[in-house]
Amino acid sequence: MHKTIPNHLTDFLDYIEIEKGLSSKTQENYSRFLTKFFKWLKENKLDKLTPDKLDADHVWKYKVFLSRHVDPRTRLPLKKSTQNYYLIALRSLLDFFVEKNISSLPPNKIKLARDKNDKEIKFLKLEQVERLLSSPDPKNIIGLRDRAILETLFSTGLRVSELVSLDRDQIRIKNGTDDLEIVVTGKGGKVRTVYFSGRAIRAIKDYFDRRMDVDEALFINYRPGSKDSTESRRLTVKSIENIVKKYIKHAGLPVMATPHTLRHSFATDLLSNGVDLRLVQEFLGHKNISTTQIYTHVTSKQLRDIHKKIHGGRKTR
Q: Which of 131, 199, 250, 260 is catalytic?
């Protein structure tokens, strides 16, 4: 006898912990999101539904329910982004069914809610990137560190959480070469290789040459008194965010940028130079190509503008 959908929850949570490497907090969130779906099934007398009986109409009705649901705390409808958390959890459950060869609705049948107020991806143009990267003062250790941080973010497309976890011994620069690649572990335990540009390598080397400490972290703070501390001086995510904001202002750029803006800029630059979307997906460490496709909207507009500029003014014979 087939198990009902709610009865797969425990196996699903074991799966995302062991095979996907997701944190206990993420597991807790997924459990909470799916519990809402199970509650909806019960209220609609569908709690005996097995995976193979779930269809697109059920999903549609659940999406309608989410869109009309009022949060009892705020007394406001759920935000589109919040609705998507519930849908992503359900889609992950269907991914689990696929992995375990359990007949069910294909995961791609669950489309996320679209928000007309969704913000466009923010990215820097190359001349803006150049101004930003040139902003730190190379005459002092903090400026050298910050230049290395900015160059690394743009060169590798690293997430800020991945950047702060880097250690010095991961960066093995060979004399006379501009080649450096390292392996990082990103979201969901996904392992990928990231590559450093010659500029990023030189910026890191200049920073290394001035460091006199023994801290294992690649990027550390220089707060007064921190030299005497036995604790690691590793920079935090918040510190990196503040550093990027500082130099965005210093460069006079009209963008409220974050470290993720440099990741967007990295991806956009690759696509603009003709790199295949699947390769960009690998560079960024995205599990699904659908995540990477957000950048095609940006490059499509650039292509449209180029076409209009070149062909728009031509007269037909």
A: 260
Burial track 55-79 (b if 16+ CB lie within 10 A, e otherwise): eeebbeebbebbeeeeeeeeeeebe
Q: How many angstroms separate the CA atoms of 165 and 218, rounded?
A: 8
Q: In the predicted model, is pLDDT for residue 317 greater than 70? A: no
The whole-number pLDDT of residue 243 equals 95
Instruction: For residue 231, give the CATH number of its domain.
Output: 1.10.443.10
Give start and end residues of each alpha helix (H) in 55-181: 56-68, 80-99, 126-133, 141-156, 160-164
Q: Which residue has the tokens 């290394």?
A: 208
Q: Does residue 263 carry a catalytic annotation?
A: yes
Q: Are 102 and 130 part of one and the same domain? A: no
Q: Any catalytic annotation for residue 286? A: yes
Judge whether 316 lies within some domain: no
Q: What is the pLDDT of residues 256-306, one digit of tens each?
A: 788 999 999 999 888 888 888 888 899 999 888 877 877 776 666 555 665
Catalytic residue among 187, 199, 205, 245: 187
Residue 5 confidence (pLDDT) above 90: yes
- The structure tokens listed for 232 are 């690691």
The tokens for 176 are: 């006379």
How many domains is the chain built from?
2
- Choose, from 20, 63, 91, 159, the residue flagged as catalytic: 159
Label residue 155 exposed, middle or buried (CB < 10 Å: 0-12, 13-18, 19+). buried
In a domain, 64, yes or no: yes
Provide the residue range defining the domain that includes 251.
126-307
Residue 260 bears catalytic tag: yes
Catalytic (active site) residue 187: yes
Q: What is the mean pLDDT of the chain?
A: 86
Between CA 188 and CA 21 the distance in angstroms is 5
Give the model's pLDDT for residue 181.
Answer: 92
